[in-house]
């Protein structure tokens, strides 16, 4: 029995280190290859030794697919390809290919240069790894080999994020990566399909399995507009009272959306407090958005010639020294979970003042400072010193993940046979699993890391049917009759690896064989003293009355036919008071012929006089 | 399968392919060479043009002198310029299901088709094709609408009148169907019917046919198309290039194994080498400017201009031209320059990797930043303040009949210091210049056409090996002006089938198979039997389901058990389903063995008689007779079903079933 096997090496009942192994029709695919932000030891990378103990990964894996540039989805890629050793193709979209190496290099610097870690991948390894990347277009069908094909769909979430359909023959799996079902200020949604867009949604592709993220499995978020208004109100209040606002973000993604939001608000309200954006990535990041503007939302794409939304007037580059400037300010600083770098430094500076505010606009992984303060912790231990958090801590769900409603919506759209949840917390998954099973009536799985889910599949077999046979069949009417299903008869010719379905006559002919006709003729004796013609007429009307849907004919030569069964009436010379019916049919009409003999044996009904 | 040929222009094709149950229009090119018959539309009142003498017949009859004007021996129609549309009568265009666009030059007739023929289908094109196509249409509409012309000439179109006119007017085809330019509203409506597609995207049409665009290497987003079902493949090659310019390289491999390859859009100047032309372009430009003259480059707002700007970017400083202003004037100049930078995914590898840095893929960004290249929507407004001479002006339209180029022709035509350099190959430069004669300015002809030439075509055909090639008739003979150049035509085996405008071709194509899916449960129940080494057969009896042109075979329903009990049984309930056919039989019955078998089964009064063709086996007691011949067996017996079935099964043992 063919089957699809799925094993998460990461992101199984967890957020971070996304890495899911899929085996489908004998092909092995790795979906994402991420790092875990909550760990600094071996656990930060997926355990690739699970895949193969001794053999080369390249021999085992047919391809690696990266859904988007976030490090929890691509952070372990150079480790996989250069240190463990994988030389096969790595697929990702163009923007992901452009941005991913920059984030990997940043990550490497942070780990090696700042934290002094040894045995980490090098700059050269990042470069060599990227050489193995094959960029894909949206909706392009990429033929990985003769049988395995993949296709990317727009996912929203971040620039270049994609969902992937993996197909072998009639079996398929859809992996969502991270996605967003509501369009935001800088990206489209995974759902939006305006007439002139890239048709950015997943079609009703009916995969055997949908592997979806479930970060916000239990959340149903209020409208985007409300959240935006709330965000602006909080920033505005803090600035008005002279406070400093820290917004930890990742350089690409939410940052751009919030910048657009604040830029337009500052413009409208004519605010003077400075807005800064930390790290050198800003300008570069915005440049990527500009060059990949076709990946942004409809509005930005339409107006970019007149006004590029990624050229900000109010937002300036941040300098470390600015943190100590008096007066209000808003600073976007990286990284987004307050686990290291500039955002953490600024946080330490500002945490003690209750006038200040930190707004966490996205999800924080367990173990990060962001997660700690969001879960209410106000006393932190940092580098051996106590830090009391007096500043206002706000959480705003701006991360571009689908919420429960969105996940259900996507599942409804794709119409999968099964759903498998990854990239979420076990408890929340449990809730969504139930919802899926109840509302969509699909089996839903949520394997932990290292746990394998096996789904039996039953792929249909494509063959070529001769047009003659098909047309002959179709000519008999297109609508199948539930009461009397029409059967198609043919011979399947299997030669080499090609399968052709042809009419039996053609099969015989192709093989140079002659048909052997097997014919039966049964004598049925009737006691009937009437004239022969009258008996014929009685036989005819009797058969006609019973076989209403059949072609019963009375031929000029005195014989009666039912379809191709022939009934002839003879009068034996020795006994004119009986008649002998000769019922004759070929083997192909066996059922009908046999039925007619037994029917006629019962005699003819009395003719109404 | 049929091909309806609606356009006679080999590089601006418009064909309709009927394939399986679908009707597919391939491209929607607009033949604009018709505009050469018209007088230019000046932006600023031109005394020269308005004072041209009216044309009169040889006998002095001057009834056409309002419509026709004479200039240096050529006659022009003084009217709003008109375009030659694809045939609209050859096939009912409302039956077209989809239109496939190959590149932005080949969609210019789209509004005429989608807005005025009852078309209700979908148009497929890539994003750059749509965006740049929109710019080309916008420019065209703008050029024509901003110079309203009261007069619309029609007298000359009368067949009897046209006969009397001098060439080339006399020979113009289908003048009665020539139409004025569409409006922006029609353009928007037409473009709203487009669905965007990416290279190698498989698009299902009604489940019957799959179409796929492939990179053609000619322009941003330009595509060839594969139209295929599971057993047939048609490749549509239109405007392809093997030269490395800015677009993604051509995908040749995917064209392999085509049953039919439709080949259009080859180079219009097969004798000119594009690289050489670019060199000549640069040196002539430099020479003119150094001598204090101005250079005019009539061009489209997108395409080759990107390559020219890139060459100049590398050339300007070394040629000492860094102080010379370059102007790009078009209502869509800014958009075109901006759009060129955002289609990284559609560019060649070199340009793509620049975007990863991230840097703009085209160097004209730097030319603009350093003020070496300036762009304006028209000669009015800012341009008049900034205008410095000598300079280089890129502007449209390459036909020299409308657009800002008309102004510069009038302005610079009288001085031999100036040069006009023709780079676009779509219009004969001599015809384009005719209404400006006599001219003092220098004219240089450097046509840059990067599309396939005949050497490349024959190499391509050898590589992809289509069974049949279909192409416009122009490609099956040498160009009229070079009739001895047998190398300037398509050479393939079997010879290419050619088409001309308004012709219908039956493509040599016999469909024999269709894909059908056998459901797993049915597949499991099949019993394959090896008939010959390597060939196995299995008899299939199944229920055919057809939905959306997809066929599926499902297992036959289990015979329903007669519902025991209360319901009164009617005689007709027992009637067997005659559709349950038995398999065909093959083989022959060896009489001796058959008789032995009969004996083994308890028949002992067997008598065998020889006949002309075989034998008769008699079972005397049972009054049964079995005629056995090479290819047939006939069992004649009394109505004893038990006996008959026993005999039947014994016979079947010797035969193979199909």
Topology:
The complex is a heterodimer of chains A (609) and B (658).
Chain A: E1 3-10, E2 19-24, E3 27-31, H1 57-60, E4 63-65, H2 71-74, H3 77-85, E5 90-93, H4 94-114, H5 123-131, E6 133-136, E7 141-143, E8 148-154, E9 162-168, E10 171-175, E11 209-213, H6 224-240, E12 244-248, H7 254-269, E13 275-277, H8 281-291, H9 298-303, E14 315-317, E15 329-333, H10 341-350, E16 357-360, H11 369-374, E17 379-382, E18 385-388, E19 392-395, H12 404-414, E20 418-422, H13 426-440, E21 443-445, E22 453-456, E23 461-466, H14 467-475, E24 487-495, E25 498-502, H15 504-510, E26 517-527, H16 532-546, E27 552-554, E28 560-562, E29 565-570, E30 578-586, H17 590-601
Parallel strand pairs in A: 3-4, 4-5, 5-6, 10-11, 11-20, 12-15, 12-16, 13-14, 13-15, 16-19, 20-21, 23-25
Antiparallel strand pairs in A: 1-2, 1-22, 2-3, 7-8, 8-9, 9-10, 17-18, 24-25, 26-30, 27-28, 28-29, 29-30
Helix pairs in contact in A: 3-5, 4-5
Chain B: E1 2-5, E2 15-19, E3 22-26, H1 47-50, E4 68-71, E5 74-77, E6 98-100, H2 110-116, E7 122-126, H3 127-145, H4 159-162, H5 184-191, E8 194-197, E9 203-205, E10 209-215, E11 223-228, E12 233-238, E13 260-264, H6 274-290, E14 295-298, H7 304-315, E15 326-329, H8 333-340, H9 349-355, H10 364-369, E16 373-376, H11 382-386, E17 392-395, H12 405-412, E18 419-422, H13 429-433, E19 442-445, H14 454-464, E20 468-472, E21 497-499, E22 503-506, E23 513-518, H15 520-525, E24 529-532, E25 535-547, E26 550-554, E27 585-586, H16 591-600, E28 606-610, E29 614-619, E30 624-629, E31 632-638, H17 641-652, E32 656-657
Parallel strand pairs in B: 3-6, 6-7, 7-8, 12-13, 13-20, 14-17, 14-18, 15-16, 15-17, 18-19, 20-21, 23-26
Antiparallel strand pairs in B: 1-2, 1-22, 2-3, 4-5, 9-10, 10-11, 11-12, 24-25, 25-26, 27-32, 28-29, 29-30, 30-31
Helix pairs in contact in B: 2-5, 3-5
